[in-house]
Amino acid sequence: MQVFKFGGASVGSAFSIENAAGIIRMFPGPKVVVISAMGKMTNAFEELVKAYFSNNSNGKAEHFRKIKKYHNDIMSHLSSKNKIDWSDVDKLFSGLESRLKVTPSMNFDYEYDQVVSYGELLSTTIISSFYNAIGLTNKWIDIRKCLITDNMYREANINRELSEEQIKKAFDLPGCELIITQGFLGGTTTNHTTTLGREGSDYTAAILANILDAQHVTIWKNVPGILNADPVFLPATKKLDELSYREAIELSYSGAKVIHPKTIKPLQNKRIPLFVKSFDNPEQKGTIIHDIDHILNLVPVFIIKQKQALITLTPEDFSFISIQTVSNIFSLCASYRLKVGLIQQSAINLSLVFDEPEQGIEELIAELHKNFDVRYNTGLELVTIRYYDQEAINEIAKGRRIYIEQKSRRTVRLLLK
Ligand code: ASP
Ligand code: MG
Question: pTM for the full model?
Fold first, then answer.
């Protein structure tokens, strides 16, 4: 069995949904296909849930209309040549509409998951119905019933034992060559929908592959494979033909957007190879992530994270930064869900770099102010270069202010303005 994952860009139009059907047909054997919300729909659903939560009825109506139109346009393209039964899609839209009429609870993260999850429910239902109509026979599985999580809404943690049991049961469909299911979603033991964190569909694919002992996983993307830099930032990019699991984890953790950082562990644990391939050129080799025992001679790999914030703390009484202090600061950051990506410490300074939060962190800063002198900068860029050389550093840092530079044997990390 193999697992395929199609992200938003690979199912963002009727044309690309047909293209994905071609890819599925190209590779024989049973498949589990994990699909994200179409195009940029998750962002659109985020706007919808914000309007819903803040009782902004005009905004709510407007976003709902846009989302419905986007899907309807795709559906009418798909049904121009084929007769398709869209009744399951209609049910989803009426379910969403009724949900939006109910007064929201006070828990935003909970409401977020209940609403934003419609992105994946719609995409998989539309695609499954269309594929069945064109003879690509498949079964649709509601992943929320088998990928069991805790109730950390928007960042749910998977309950491995319960999920394994449910998934093995639900996916055991003798004679079925194609299963379609949602990425990014899970469900609690009390039947509430959860999500696994933005871009979490890769992780879903990896978990399913692990539990179902897949031969390999393929993530279909709009790039030829994993590149040594994001072409948006650096024009002369090179494709990396292969990576070890360890290298892939380092790259994705540092912010390389090609794969979700949690994806590698479930695959590495069962030595399941991961391919990253282009959906425009499916016959090309792409990148393979697998067990490697030879030395990889990699070109410098650049990972750029924008919108970074830097907090520098100095104890007001000039006392040293102790382990206890660090631990307290980290639990405070965790309670604000800040993901610290870089730490630098000296005798009386502690600097933390993290993604700029959506909402202000005035409260956190006020809290820290009780004991520390606090400096706070935003709008920075965190650049990680694996396999760096001086030329690579010069290229990226030329004419810019360097706030932090950290070097290890293989990696340099620069915080730049
Ligand atoms: N649709 C979700 C998102 O855009 C999950 C994913 O694409 O992996 O974040
Ligand atoms: Mg996506």
Answer: 0.86
